[in-house]
Write a structure and sequence with these properties.
9 helices, alpha/beta, 258 residues, eight-stranded mixed sheet, single chain, Rossmann fold, binds S-adenosylmethionine
């Protein structure tokens, strides 16, 4: 297949315009549909009679998170992202749903650090934490745990490396999949995605998060969905006595690589 030559300016256009990511969502290339269904089901029984206070880290245009709960269950929604165009779309969606919301254009680590202790029922992050360094991922998890109420939940949706893959192998496999299967995108758009991912994506294997979460007081990890490298996990804020080191592997997982 022919690959387009692209430069950094073109990558910036991708990041700023947001349209390409919307195309990816519309084509369900990152399994937004299946993953949001699985997370929504898992939240039905969580504090069913309470309006929930929610923090969404790297919310983008909100099109993932706003599918995860019916609007009447959202008491307050604080969301942050570095992309102003994405936040403008999120604003419009939120206005239409009449949710009480605060959208912040800032780094997720800053925003998480500013939340008061034990003030949040739920923290979501969808396809965003893989942009952070390993050290910042760890710092972020500490802040998430601090800000959650006892037994609050952290929902982590992201791309993950298979345990057998290092970053280079992950890149080879995932970028190959984009070129083979994301065929509703033009070759130029595929190349923009590949360039963006090669430069900015630092996915970890699930074990990395389990270890960091346990250290920070988030236990009882449950796998909610796995579709190739796209996974959803939920963690519960636990007291140190009850912290469980076990976690439930998703039974029907299909490894992306053998
Ligand atoms: C792939 S998009 C995911 C958007 C949305 N959460 C979803 O699941 O569709 C990743 C988002 O993370 C945001 N992002 C990346 N690094 C960030 C950071 N350090 N702080 C806040 N947002 C960040 C990007 O601007 C982008 O909107």
């Amino acid at each position: 297949m022919q690959h387009a030559n692209i430069d950094q300016a073109a990558v910036e256009v991708f990041l700023k315009s947001w349209q390409l990511y919307q195309q990816i969502i519309e084509n369900n290339y990152m399994f937004h549909r299946e993953i949001s269904d699985a997370v929504r089901d898992s939240l039905i029984s969580f504090r069913p009679n309470k309006k929930l206070s929610i923090l969404d880290l790297g919310c983008g245009d909100g099109s993932m998170t706003l599918r995860l709960l019916p609007p009447e269950r959202i008491g307050s929604y604080i969301a942050c992202d570095l992309s102003q165009p994405a936040l403008e779309i999120a604003h419009r969606q939120i206005d239409a749903l009449a949710i009480s919301a605060k959208l912040i254009c800032d780094d997720m680590l800053n925003v998480a650090s500013e939340q008061p202790d034990q003030s949040l029922d739920l923290v979501f992050s969808s396809y965003a934490i893989h942009h952070l360094s390993a050290n910042n991922k760890q710092l972020l998890i500490e802040q998430i745990s601090r800000a959650l109420t006892p037994d609050g939940r952290f929902v982590l949706i992201d791309i993950f490396r298979e345990p057998s893959e290092d970053r280079a192998a992950y890149m080879r496999h995932y970028m190959g999949r984009i070129r083979e299967s994301w065929t509703n995108l033009t070759v130029e758009s595929q190349a923009l995605v590949v360039n963006h991912a090669t430069e900015y994506d630092y996915p970890e294997p699930p074990e990395f998060f389990h270890v960091q979460c346990i250290k920070a007081g988030l236990g009882n990890a449950q796998a909610l969905a796995k579709h190739t490298w796209h996974e959803a996990w939920i963690y519960a804020k636990e007291s140190s006595q009850s912290l469980q080191t076990r976690y439930t592997h998703f039974k029907n997982s299909n490894p992306c690589v053998s």
